[in-house]
Amino acid sequence: MKIGVIGAGRLGICFALLAESAGHDVYVSDVRPNYVAQINAREIFSNEPDVEELLMESKHLRATTNNQDVIKSSDVIFTFVPTPSLDDGSYDCSLVDSVVCDLLRAPNLEGKKFIVGCTTNPGFVDKVDEKLEGRGISVFYSPEFVAQGTIIRDMKNADMILCGGRDDDGFEKIKAIYLSFMDSQVNFYPMSNTAAEITKIGINCFLTYKISYANMMGQILYNSGCGDEIKNILSSIGADSRIGSKYLNYGLGFGGPCLPRDNRALGYYADKVGLKYSLPQVTDDFNEAHADFIKNYCVERNTEGLAFFIDSIGYKIGCDLVIESPRLRLVEDLLKDGHRVYVQEIDDVIAEYQEELEEDYGDNIIFVKGRSEAHERTWRIDL
Fold first, then answer.
1. How far is CA 177 from CA 1, 81, 188, 224, 278, in A?
2. What integer pLDDT is reported at residue 349 of this predicted model?
3. d(Cα 217, Cα 209) in Å, to the nearest integer?
C-alpha cells in the first residue's frame, strides 16, 4: 500500500518506519529541510529505541518538504503534526488545518483516505470532514497510545486500534496497515470521529486518576507510619482484576507531553457541553499538591541534610523531554528552598535547562555524568 505521513516528528517517523518495515511504500513530509535530508541519507539521530536501526534497514521510505508530493503519491495519508495545548485546556489544531488546506489544493483526492493521528478537540475531525466533503476523500481519526522512549514498542504491542470515521472500506484499510506491523492481533474499535476523540483523551484522563489515587494512598500510608509498605500495599490493590497494576505505583505525579494536557482537555470539553465535572480539575490540583508533598518527603527522609542526587530532569528516567516534568519540578522546588542538587543525564535537549538552572541557582545545581562524580556525599532521590 502507498502510505503518506505528513509530520515526521517522533511519532510520525516511528509510524512511518514501522509501516515501511511491513512492506508498504512510505512517503513522509516535514517542514525541516535538514531533517528531511537526514532521513533520505539514513542519518538521523533519535533517542527513541529502534528508530535509527529501522531507518538504516528501510528501502521503501523517502522524505520531502512538499506535502503536495505526499498527497499526490499516496492512497492513505496520515498526519501527525503537533497540536499544542492552549491556555484554556483545548488544543491548537491550526497545523492540522494547514494540512487540510494542502489537501484542498490537491487536484485529485478521489478514493484517498485521510487519517488524523494527533490529539484533537472532540468535534474537530468532523469539521475537517465537512471541509473536504465532495472531494472523494474519506476522513478518519486514529490516535496513538504511546509513551516517549517506547514509541516503537508501544505501537507494535498496542492494546487496541481506535478509529473514528464512517467509511467501512477505510476502516478495513487502516486496520490492515496497523496489523501488518503489530506483534499480535488486537481489538479494533470503529466509531464516530467525535466518539474516538473523546475516547482518546478519556483514556489518558483515567490514567491521571489512577496515578493520583496511588499517590494519595502513598501519602496516607506514609503519614500513618506505613511508608515502608507502600509498594506491597499498592501491589495487593493492583492484584484485584477490577483495578489492575498498571500505573498504580507511588512516586512522582503525572507529567510529560500527553497526560496533563489530555486531563485538562477532557475537563474543558465537559464544560463546553454543559457538564461541570470536577474530576479532571481535582486530579490536576492533587497532582500539584503532591509535588509539594514529595519535596517535603525527600527533605524529611534526608535526615543528614546531604546534597540531593537525581538521575534525570526528564519527565521520566531515560527520556529527554522535560515538558511538565515532575522531576524538573522537584529539582526546582528543592533549589528554591536552598538545597544543593546534583543532576545526572545531560543531552542536547536538557542542556538548555542546565544553563537556565545554573543562572538561577548558581552553585546549588551541579550537573554530572554519574553519582560518582559528585564531590560530596549525596542522598539519592529514588522515585
1. 8, 20, 12, 52, 39
2. 57
3. 12
CATH 1.10.1040.10 residue spans of the chain: 193-294
User: What tens digit of pLDDT does each residue of 69-125 get?
Assistant: 999 999 999 999 999 999 999 999 999 999 999 999 999 999 999 999 999 999 999
Distance from C-alpha of 360 to C-alpha of 210, rounded to nearest angstrom: 35
Amino acid at 381: I
Residue 63: is its pLDDT beyond 70? yes
Distances (CA, A) of 250 to 42, 168, 225, 240, 279: 41, 43, 15, 17, 20
How much is the pLDDT for 317? 80
Q: Residue 104's pLDDT is what?
A: 98
Contact 326, 256 (CB under 8 A): no
Amino acid in the structure at residue 264: R
Which regions of the chain carry the CATH code 3.40.50.720?
A: 2-191
For the chain, helix, strand, coil in percent to 5 are 50, 15, 40
- Round to whole Å and give the CA distance between 338 and 68: 55
- Give the integer Cα–Cα distance in Å for 190 and 127: 19
**Domain 2-191, what fold?**
Rossmann fold (3.40.50)
Considering the domain 193-294, what is its CATH architecture? Orthogonal Bundle (1.10)
Residue 61 CA to residue 40 CA, distance in Å, equals: 8
pLDDT digits (tens, 9 = 90+) for 274-298: 998 889 999 999 999 999 999 999 9
Phi-psi region of 225 (alpha: psi -120 to 50; beta: other; left: phi over 0): left
pLDDT confidence of residue 177: 98
Distances in Å between the Cα of 32 and the Cα atoms of 8, 18, 42, 64, 122 are 9, 21, 15, 9, 29
DSSP structural state of residue 85 = B
